[in-house]
Amino acid sequence: MRRSPSWLPDGRVEWMLLAALAACYPASLVLPAAWAREGGPLESLQVLVLCAGCVLALLMYVRARPARVAMLALWLAPVWLLLAGRELSWGRAWLPDHSTAADTMAGMALWFQPLVRPGAGVLLAALLVSAVYHRIDGPLRAAFTRRVPWVVLIVMLAAAMGSTCAEGHMSCHLDRVIPSAQAFEELCELLAYVALCMAQHVVFMHQMPPKRIPGIVRAPAVTPEEAG
Fold first, then answer.
1. How far apart are CA 53 and CA 64, in angstroms?
2. Which of 52, 74, 54 is nearest to 63 (CA)?
């Protein structure tokens, strides 16, 4: 049987990711503007996807121990939490409108803001050291040996680029051209996180340890002399 090239869509999920990528701009034109605001439904969906990625990583760690992919899963869990914290602006997204919020509430909720960047920097440094020490690149290379999920990676990169350009970064000011740039940015970001979660799933499924079936005892092999 002839196998299709790895860059072609394989399965419904990859086709759905491509369809979602193509639908980001049309959907941004019809969605209510309130959905794209900070703390709105789209941002809440992003945080939900990121938290789901963290939970799946922790479940994989519990199931795969002591295999090397377990360390990769444990390494990925705080990365998901960092992304979720960034989406929530480290707590500021839970505050009401700054123009109407009380100063005491803002002070109580944002007292830890000066600690965010140093704490994130220390965590990233620790993740980098642990990645080198535990050689977590091994499960990644092993997972991509059979088939690289190019469609998932391309959708993730394209969605991230679309979100970045919609924000006006990288000298690409789509925010001046697209009438609903904020909604387009949030939709692209949501799709990028979904694709990232899918990429994690691909790696985990290729490295899933075999499941033991209880109650089955294999008999020792019988030699021809014993059979005679």
1. 16
2. 74
Q: Please, what is the Cα angle at 124 between 17 and 205, to 5 degrees?
A: 40
Q: Which amino acid is at 28?
A: S
1, 139 in Cβ contact below 8 A?
no
Alpha carbons 42 and 166: distance in angstroms, whole number: 15
For 186, residues 6+ apart whose C-beta sits below 8 A from its C-beta are 35, 36, 40, 42, 43, 46, 163
Q: Do the Cβ atoms of 140 and 207 come closer than 8 Å?
A: no
Write out pLDDT tens, residues 173-217: 776 778 888 899 999 999 999 999 999 988 888 766 555 555 544
pLDDT digits over 27-70, tens only?
Answer: 999 999 889 888 789 999 999 999 999 999 999 998 878 777 88
Residue type, 59: L
Global pTM?
0.78
Taking CA atoms, 186 is separated from 50, 100, 193, in Å, by 14, 25, 11
